[in-house]
Amino acid sequence: MSQAPNEKKKIILSGIQPTGVFTLGNYIGAIKNWVKLQEEYDCAYMIADMHSLTVRQDPKKLREQILSAFAIVLACGIDPKKSLTFMQSHVHQHAELSWILSCNTQFGELSRMTQFKDKSAKHADNINAGLFTYPSLMAADILLYQADLVPVGADQKQHLELARNVAIRFNNNYGNTFTVPDGYIPKAGAKVMSLSDPTKKMSKSDSNPNSFITILDKPEVIVKKFKKAVTDSEASVRMGEGKDGINNLITIYSVVTNKTVDEIEKEFDSKGYGYFKNAVGEAVAEHLRPVRENYERLINDKAYLTEAYKRGAETASKFADRTLQKVYKKVGFIAK
Ligand code: AQP
Q1: Mean pLDDT of the region 181-196
Q2: In this predicted model, what pLDDT tens digit does every residue of 89-115 receive, in sequence order?
Q3: Å from CA of 7 to ligand 1 middle
């Protein structure tokens, strides 16, 4: 997609917020799939810096996190020559389309979003309008690029459904304008859970650093965090009801080793949780090693990063503007 669009290939759009170093959840639920998909599809991947403002951010820290997030995405294997890779705020059409879509989204629809309810409870002193209209901006991100598929973790399913509904409604009211996107949600690891409270999803902005693994954690830190992971008192490495902690660890181990649940249950049959947790920690540390090493190299090459995100923004703007101008015409605005 960084070159001329190939009519035959389907288009993919996904994004990630630079609200902290990415977690193993972000990696397994989203970025790992982004890398696979770029071989087969025309992909657009963005650092969702505008979305991150729905929660209060320190500007200096945010600036560092945005560049770091861009470097992590490349370190994970996204090739900016193959996939359109850019910062959301560099493409002004996202904000513009978001307004039009907000005017085509109902208050009641937005009120039902569980992320809005969760984040309002978590940030009770800052329940801002952006937090409420976040799904309209997300719909704009997707619809601007006429995306066919959106690879996300299970937590984003509701927002994606809303984007589909808005696209269908707009197409019905104004004539065919947007491709209606489908979700691409991984079978295993669609929701990686917190290590300290496995009933909650793993989140990069969690105040307890032992609850998440970041992509850049050192191997010894990763092993230590897994050793502290909350499990149960059954001492049996098998999937089961009421075993959220172990279910989570088996899923993670399965994704990073490509072993099936059956194979894992056999491998750790009659082995204790301490032994299993150590094995999971070591497997994850090894899996993330190349990403960590690539990141160290990339983050020190500011010239390369700058050139890559500027080129990405330039190409993204061209695609985005094509859709936005079509929308402006459809809603009745006069061309400049
Ligand atoms: N725990 C998770 N398991 C699987 N997938 C996950 N994703 C996030 N957490 C998990 C997926 O990662 C992509 C990028 O997410 P995001 O950064 O845009 O927003 P988020 O879902 O709010 O992620 P976090 O880590 O929980 O961020 P904060 O703490 O800032 O809210 C999405 O595709 C998401 O599904």
Answers
A1: 88
A2: 999 999 999 999 999 999 999 999 999
A3: 31
Query: In 3D, which of 327, 140, 171 has the Cα closest to residue 150?
Result: 140
Token pair listed for 251? 């899923």
Average pLDDT over residues 72-88: 97
For residue 240, the CA-to-ligand 1 centroid distance in Å is: 25
Angle, CA of 265, 25 and 241, to the nearest 5°: 40
**Contact (Cβ atoms closer than 8 angstroms) between residue 71 and residue 30:** no
pLDDT bucket at 321, cuts 50 / 70 / 90: very high
Inter-residue contact 78 to 38 (CB < 8 Å): yes
Is the CB of 202 within 6 Å of ligand 1? yes
Overall average pLDDT of the 19-23 stretch:
93
182 SS3 class: strand
Structure confidence by residue, pLDDT tens digits, 267-310: 999 899 999 999 999 999 999 999 999 999 999 999 999 999 99
In the sheet where 182-184 sits, what is the strand order?
A: 84-87, 42-47, 11-16, 149-151, 182-184
76-92 per-residue burial string, b: 16 or more CB within 10 A, e: under 16: bbbebeebbbbbbbbbe
DSSP calls for 14-48: EEE--SSSPBHHHIIIIIHHHHHHTTTSEEEEEE-
Helices H / strands E in the chain, number of each: 14, 5
> What's the pLDDT at 7?
57
Three-class SS of residue 148?
Answer: coil
- Among 14, 17, 28, residue to substitute to test ligand 1 (most atoms within 8 Å of Cβ): 17
